[in-house]
Amino acid sequence: MTQVLATPAELVPSSAPARRTARRKELLRWIAVHSLGVAAALFFVLPFVFVLLTSLMSDSQALSRDLIPGTWEWGNYRKVFDTPGFLTWWRNTLIYAGLGTALTVVSSVPVAYALAKFRFPGRNLALMLVISMMMLPPQVVVIPMYLFWAKQLGLSGTLWPLIIPMAFGDAFSIFLLRQFLMTIPNEYVDAARVDGCGELRTLVRVVLPMAKPGIAAVALFQFFNAWNDYFGPQIYASENPGAWTLSYGLESFKGAHHTDWNLTMAATVLVMAPVILVFFFAQKAFVEGVTLTGVKG
């Protein structure tokens, strides 16, 4: 009995439906995964789009139900900049965020390096103290700190009570840097010591170049925290308009323009824009530092 074998051409019709089914399943899977991503993106992006579009509306249209500006009023941003004190708030915020971030990084790196790479009595106790400071709400110590800075040192009405403490380290920054430095192999540090490097030189020449992602993450956290800080300037600088920051000045601006929502939204965009731009350009280092990837072999 002769058996006739099917040729490849005869197998195509039977396998084509299977391929179509597989492609359909793959397409549905792609739509499901990306639709969730698109929905999450829209959830976060749409409020920013609403603020941006409202900032470009006229006074009357900003009070209507329109979502798209009838005329693009770019002059709203000029009006915000012309507001008395706005450039001063901008300058104060840059000083507060920039200087505070630099002091925090410089003061936190050596402490984190010691907790990560040194072996000394009481190291675990020191680490527990750092963690306990992270758990302490700032509102608990605000009264004694205010009495110290305002009454004894006479620094009320300035931002120095907020900037100077950053020169003595930050608990969250120390802990985050310590966790990142723990991922750096000790062999690198030991090799530098064998070559005759002191601890300071080892930190500067060996550890810091390898810890750039962690330092970038700490710097961004501190910069965002200082830029958006409302509580601190309200406590120490509220009595002096010349020392207000953008976050605190924006509240005053909103009160003065409570019916001009287009100007309020324009001021909000100008306050948010630097933070968004900084994160956009530094997001790679930020994500790498937060995930504590450490050294890749």
TrEMBL record:
InterPro entries: MetI-like, MetI-like_sf. One of its GO terms (biological process) is transmembrane transport. SUPFAM superfamilies: MetI-like. Residues 90-282 form the ABC transmembrane type-1 domain. The keyword Transport applies. It is found in: Cell membrane. It is a multi-pass membrane protein. GO terms for cellular component: plasma membrane. Its main location: membrane. Pfam families: BPD_transp_1. Keywords: Cell membrane, Membrane, Transmembrane, Transmembrane helix, Transport. The chain crosses the membrane at residues 27-53, 94-115, 127-147, 159-181, 202-224, 261-282. The keyword Membrane applies. Belongs to the binding-protein-dependent transport system permease family. PANTHER family: ABC TRANSPORTER PERMEASE PROTEIN MG189-RELATED, ABC TRANSPORTER PERMEASE PROTEIN MG189-RELATED-RELATED. This is Carbohydrate ABC transporter permease.
